[in-house]
Specification:
Strand 2, helix 2 (61-74) and strand 3 (78-82) form a beta-alpha-beta unit. Helix 1 (28-40) runs parallel beside helix 2. The protein is an alpha/beta fold and 107 residues long. It is built from 4 helices and 4 strands. The chain has a 4-stranded parallel β-sheet, covered by helices on one side.
Length: 107
Amino acid sequence: MSEAVVITAALTGVLATREQCPAIPYTPVEIAEEAKRAAEAGASIVHIHARNPEGGPEWRVETFAEILSEVRARADVIVNFSNGASDIAAEHGSGHIRYVREEIGAP
């Protein structure tokens, strides 16, 4: 290619479940493995909604930090965490930003 292209892979979907798609990753290790596969396929950015082990939304700073650590151990990609949702308080959706310091944040 003669032009630069940026490919973003949305790894978890906003509220997708394994009932809808059995391949949806929930845990930090599963998410990191998907990030690795995405990078190997050409993605330079991975967009991630943190999940709890049952697949629901997760907002704990520790979970974001674990996801970031696991992704960094497997892939050289820009991490783009979701920073909120319309049905949660702003401090929960973006509370991890000052601690985790991912490269990009998206609402």
